[in-house]
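ok trying again, last paste got cut off:
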Amino acid sequence: MTTNATIIPAVTFRPAGTGASAKANELGMRPMQAQAFDKRGEQYLLIKSPPASGKSRALMFIALDKLINQGVKKAIICVPERSIGASFASEPLSKYGFFADWDVAPQWNLCNTPGADDPKVAKSKVKAVGEFLASDARVLVCTHATFRFAFDELGVAAFDNTLVAIDEFHHVSADAGNRLGAQLAQLIGHDKAHIVAMTGSYFRGDAIPVLAPEDEARFETVTYTYYQQLNGYQYLKVLDIGYSFYTGPYTEKIEALLDPTVKTIIHIPSVNSRESLKDKHREAEDIMNHLGEWQGIDPQTGFHLIRTISGKVIRVADLVDDDPAKRDRVAGALKSPKARDDRDFVDIIIALGMAKEGFDWIWCEHALTVGYRSSLTEIIQIIGRATRDAPGKARARFTNLIAEPAADDPLVVDAINDYLKAIAASLLMEQVLAPRFDFTPKDAGPKPGFDYGDEGYQEGKLNVGVGPQGQMHFEIKGLKLPTSIEATRICREDLNEVIASFVQDKAVLERGMFDPEVVPEELTLLKMGKIVREKYPELSDEDQEAVRQHAVAAMTLTQQAKAAGVVDTSDTDLKGSTAFIDGVRKFALSVTDLDIDLIDRVNPFSATYAVLAKAMDEKTLLQVQAVINAKKNKMTYDDARALAERALEFKRERGRLPSLTSQDAWEREMAEGVAFLQRHATKAASDV
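nice, full thing came through this time. structure:
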């Protein structure tokens, strides 16, 4: 068996290994949980925190305080699927120093109801919610679906003085067709319930916001980043994220990526996807055949027993088989304490729609996903399966195996779309794994509590400070600061959401990656500016520009840090925050200073393209470029207006309009926008 397949590296993150993530305080709380508990008095609380950071237990601490000390009468915990309900089972928290235990009576954990797929049982669960609200019981666990049906039947007032906790909150959206989102809006409008929302990825993967701006403004946000979480690990030293291309049936390529000695979750493609071979059972069987010789099935767990070429018998859990009896037995075994405590209990898991969000197998070292998934959210959730810290687990990786665009493929455009989506996912993960940024204008002074190195902060020099929670302070010449509370919150909390919208814009990604004639400012000024205006129309022009600058700066610094060697897998000395600072300093020293105009002149996709150009087949790369360039659109009226607005700024600064004959490509493009509007106005006048 070979494991030497070419994997294009997207991200290699080396945590600092402080061990802080697992250290508990006197109340038994890990860092994220303590951070969230500090906000326990808020009526509306949004917790954004990565997998394995302890969101479930954080909710227990907060809910118990609300029930015991804040006069809240009930707590209803809503999860997207039944399997996640186990995360909220009874827990003796007083054993670890807390003032009360988390107790969920069996009859009130509706995720454990037998025959849950039976419509009659579903109806009885809705009835059970009403019975719970009328009882003396304090805690109920149910699915999102059960809560939605109960809300429809009971009405908003039934949940007065009740804590409603929504796990995996990215399932909610502000779209009118999203029932849970509409119900939450009613709860917020009624203003008599408490809401705690939790998510490991606040990206829905589409253009629809999770909450309407006016509703989100009601929430106090607790943000605990991947950067903080991974740097605080004890065992995991390296996280690799990359993708590999294949032609022909994926089952022939997957063998080269599989190592039976590495604990792996394999997600095969949806039966409706282009990558699927249209027989999911056969695909799972082919994967097992690649692993070795089938020896039978363990009667207790339902795991397949396979003897590898080395002679070792490994255990493979098949979650693709949709026979209810078989899958329930396998799923039940994977949720058992044995799976959590025994590294050798299972070796490989093959899944399709399961084993994603909320699936807690700490031993997973490799998440191997075939084909692009339905959204960036799903990709981030799958990556989270491999990012748990566990004894003996020094390295983890995520690999996305995707079909390579081929010149003779009639579906080449579809292949390129999947290829672009994979790039977008890697770009977003780079941003998610980066530290939080704190930007100020040049010579604004040091930030309290930040470490600026041995020499400390020095005015007039490039200063990079590291804060107590891993956030980084950069001074940028010409930077605009937000003026409103909402814009300040966005710059502090939601830059990754802005960048997610940017990298998911296919036209932006196509131009940035594969158009050699693209002017970077077209992306950083026009495209990012348009995204910010559409995403936050309520902000003033000045605040929209501040958000745009902060988002572009965050993405550019992350990409330039990568280009300077942060993701060099051969350098084992690079660790955590030091690597990121060193990468940014290399970039900054090459340009003397950090200036917003300079940052706007950097193509934010150039570093990623450089990696692809080295790793991908040249013929394929040229084919992708040709297909994309063939779709180039001519300048639109909206584009011209945006360029003309920038041209006016240029005139205010330089005392003249941009020139069509300038040596500077961006100046020429602004001039072309002005000329376009002039021609449009002339034509309109002649048509009158």
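cool. The CA atoms of residues 142 and 481 lie 44 Å apart. The chain has 24 helices and 18 strands.
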